[in-house]
């Protein structure tokens, strides 16, 4: 294959990607969590999502998410700020760190998921439908 035809193929793929209807941030998050693609998020799917989230945050894999790890995982410190400069604790983290020791355990992150799940599951059928799934999600 010569360079020109490769460029045409790549160009075509790019155009296709752009012309697809763009998923909103919430929609793509919903689809990512709805593992069995039944159009609703179950409690088990929430739990699985929270476990994945925990692994993402626990940068040194020691089984706890220290606040500094959360800052780094979520890129909360501006690149121009000095390393380890203080970053105000966002509500998102406070919500998970229920005992306020600036360490989030797997238990805490899952419990926060349950709290959110119950809030979003308006009709209490044990599933969060796409309509019920609103920011900040699960
Ligand atoms: Ca599902
Ligand atoms: Ca850790
Ligand atoms: Ca804690």
Write a brief caption for the model.
The protein is mainly α. It is built from six helices and four strands; from the N terminus they run H-H-E-H-E-H-H-E-H-E.
Overview of this protein structure:
By secondary structure, this protein is mainly α. The protein has 6 helices and 4 strands. It has one domain: Recoverin, domain 1. The strands form 2 sheets. Strands 1-4 form a two-stranded antiparallel ribbon. The chain is globular and about 45 Å long. One calcium ion (CA) binds next to strand 1.
Task: Quickly list its features.
138 residues; mainly alpha; Recoverin, domain 1; two-stranded antiparallel ribbon; 4 strands
List the helices and strands and how they pair.
Elements lengths: L2 H17 L5 H9 L6 E3 H15 L6 E3 H7 L17 H6 L6 E3 H15 L6 E3 L9
Antiparallel strand pairs: 1-4, 2-3
Helix pairs in contact: 3-6
The protein binds calcium ion (3 copies).
């Amino acid at each position: 294959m010569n360079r020109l035809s490769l460029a045409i193929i790549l160009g075509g793929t790019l155009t296709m990607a752009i012309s697809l209807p763009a998923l909103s941030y919430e929609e793509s998050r919903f689809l990512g969590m709805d593992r069995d693609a039944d159009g609703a998020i179950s409690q088990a799917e929430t739990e699985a999502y929270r476990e994945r989230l925990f692994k993402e945050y626990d940068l040194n894999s020691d089984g706890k998410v220290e606040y500094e790890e959360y800052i780094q995982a979520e890129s909360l410190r501006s690149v121009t700020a000095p390393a380890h400069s203080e970053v105000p604790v966002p509500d998102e983290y406070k919500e998970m760190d229920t005992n306020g020791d600036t360490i989030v355990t797997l238990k805490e992150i899952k419990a926060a998921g349950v709290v959110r799940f119950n809030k979003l599951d308006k009709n209490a059928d044990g599933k969060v439908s796409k309509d019920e799934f609103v920011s900040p999600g699960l």
